[in-house]
Amino acid sequence: xxxxxxxxxxxxxxxxxxxxxxxxxxxxxxxxxxxxxxxxxxxxxxxxxxxxxxxxxxxxxxxxxxxxxxxxxxxxxxxxxxxxxxxxxxxxxxxxxxxxxxxxxxxxxxxxxxxxxxxxxxxxxxxxxxxxxxxxxxxxxxxxxxxxxxxxxxxxxxxxxxxxxxxxxxxxxxxxxxxxxxxxxxxxxxxxxxxxxxxxxxxxxxxxxxxxxxxxxxxxxxxxxxxxxxxxxxxxxxxxxxxxxxxxxxxxxxxxxxxxxxxxxxxxxxxxxxxxxxxxxxxxxxxxxxxxxxxxxxxxxxxxxxxxxxxxxxxxxxxxxxxxxxxxxxxxxxxxxxxxxxxxxxxxxxxxxxxxxxxxxxxxxxxxxxxxxxxxxxxxxxxxxxxxxxxxxxxxxxxxxxxxxxxxxxxxxxxxxxxxxxxxxxxxxxxxxxxxxxxxxxxxxxxxxxxxxxxxxxxxxxxxxxxxxxxxxxxxxxxxxxxxxxxxxxxxxxxxxxxxxxxxxxxxxx
Length: 510
Known about the structure:
The protein is α+β, with helices and mostly antiparallel strands. It has 15 helices and 18 strands. It is about 35% helix and about 25% strand. Helix 6 crosses helix 15 (about 475-480). The protein is elongated, with a radius of gyration of 28 Å. Residues about 505-510 have low confidence and may be disordered.
């Protein structure tokens, strides 16, 4: 197959040389379109149009050629309940374009090439909307073809590596990234409409914080400083609140140096927002409205499908008391657990977890989180707010009546976390203690523990107002909303291993 592909490559390269030796550019600088392919259904028949796109189909019947041009185009609005037009049929006949032009199209225009055509809209005998070509231009010559038989790519590695081929040939892949980018645009507009200011914070940071995860490490040569790629923009966004901006958000690229699986990425996109003078109840109301409106924007209704089930989004989500539910599972009060070894012993005695699962847990909080992920979260199917958490997250405000509890919530749907939010800890004395506990966990070997962030504590000592914040992964959000098989389906160019040049896409122009 490699030799056949190289033979095809050489043939197309020869066509480029022949065109240029005849004084014609095989790679034009521009083309004047008058219409977009996705808009053509709006126009009456006999309308004169000039459109351009990649040729994905070609059939020759003597004096008549049928082909298809593909383009997503620009400046489009999407009705996600019905797919947008991404291709249009074109026809070239001897009677209209002439023998010389028809022969040129036959000989030099191949599947994969970019073509510009001018002509009028007609419908064929089968009713298909078609541009009856009067003139055409070869705009850009492709030296390699498209996936075989237009059935799309099935090789997963090639699908993610050569995403441009996947998007062209697979409507499901195309819809996933279209939804992602249009939803991101919707989210930005939603936040701005509700008085939030979009800001930017550093990606390179010198303290690991904002979430419990393993960081990517790097080195700043000019400052001779070890740094990390941010896990979260949280601590900087709260410093923005301290500047006097009461409502802020950021669509942030974050990084976690952890394992691969179908629902997690090492480079991912988070939307985090913070509002001064709110508590976590305000954040619950805001996010419930946001989630419902996004769902309606995509599907035209307040529901979506997940794992073969219809998930309905009520105006208020039911709630589950995290501590009370965990206590039912354990048979004792988890808030009484302060000794890690004793906690492990009790969990093992009750057969709730295996010893190997507890081997890398260095804090009571880590054990609690593991129990939640194994024994509680999988049983939650309908959209549910979890609240009343034990005090195991170092950046969250303590409950006023019991400092063993924190004011945090999560939305869980079908056993998956959609969002996390809380009333923020703004007490620098308590924050210091939280960072000290994290430092102790790090000394014991906890690779996910936060650093003691002195700069953040200093800012808090200068005064933070009451704050509540939420954060959710856009990749995860779209992954669940569209019921994708793999979270990488929501990413335009997911991380892949270096190219294996011996592995090429099979191509066939017929």
